[in-house]
Specification:
alpha+beta, 54% helix, 4 domains, Helix Hairpins
Length: 471
Amino acid sequence: MKQHLRSLRPLGGLFFRMYAGIIVAIVLAVTLMLELASRRMPPQSLDTSQAEVHSESSGRELEGLTQGLQWLIEKELLSQPQERWAEVVAGWRPHFDYPIELRPRDAVLAMNLPTRVRERLARGLPSAWMHSSGVAGDRVLLFLPLRGSEQLVVQSLRLGPGPQRVVEFLGLETSVLLIVLGLALLALTWPLYRHVTRLAATASAFGEGDFQARAESRAPEPIGHMARTFNDMAERIQRMSQEQQASLQAISHELRTPISRLHFALYMARETGDVEALHAQLGDMEKDVGELDQLTEELLTYTRLHRDAPPLEWARVDLTAMVTDLFRQLSVFNPDLKPRLHAEGLVEGTGSERYLRRAIGNLIRNAQRHARSELHVHVRQDASGCTVSVDDDGPGIPPEERERLFLPFTRLDDSRNRKTGGHGLGLAIVHRVMQAHQGHASVAEAPLGGARVTLSWPRLPSGAVTNGDNR
């Protein structure tokens, strides 16, 4: 029970913060409404001439309503000695629900009185002045000059219900409003709290290693959007984790074979006494070390091109010269194959020369392994960017295998297998080079009958750095 109550603490904090915020907003709104309404009421909303007319009409009306009271007050005070007037008025105060007092004539005339009120007071006549009006009532000042003296009886009335009466009258209704408001707010915050709690529990489970944990995406907005964003992030993290596990397993598998051969060669070298056999064993060991070195270099290149790596620094690249030089450099691997370059004159693009050379070289080397007699490279450039396609007349790649061709350590069956060499990282590096160039790599069937691998990337994407490469 205590644990359940402890789990509801966030709901209580959320509820009371929203509830207090709404109450404060209502109070401020009501205060502002009353102020604006008061300003729209006469005499505040009238100009000078209209205000004087309103003051005269309201004054006459109030004077007619209070003339009996004024006559009684004057009669009672004039029946007493002037020295006792203050004492008499003080004795009346407990019986009046509003202030009543004696003031000197000069103090009254020093007030900002309307002209009509001054004229009546000068003639010694009772006068009434509606000082202000508002939604909470009107403030009225009643002046009664006392004959034969310089004193006036001043009464300050507020016509309409006072604040205390308003509170007493609306107390029950206000309580009902606050209760209904609280219930409505609770009905709104409870589903929000429930969905947020579930999302937090899912995030906690995912953080503890349950990569299958997913949030409920059918929650109301904006929680639904947060849940879908979390699920997308979880999918990417799970996929990256799976790829990392697969890569680690593949790396251990790739390392096991040359290391096993090295152990075997060392054993044979110790056992043999024949110099020629020993040199042969050393030659095999040298090949295995070279294979390990090549694998290490490919792994380093692959990891340098991860998604969070610094952006490549771009420069102008002569693609036709690059492909021609790669033909010359890679011809030693298949001297009988005569590659052909298809380009309309000089084709210059932009990108990282180092990594573009690596990617195109990997494609040409891969095509050399599988081509029977022909290898064509097409280089094009248009307003959108650059395209390089490498075609061969080999066995091709089945459509169902093309999506996973760019995954690391992937080798396809049949003729495109381990016997052709490589570690399965060449095309994975090509894919990451294109990602770093904000482009893409794709596989299709070549017109020659084999495979066509196409690289496409824009001229200079947003955020690219122009200079040399810093990786």
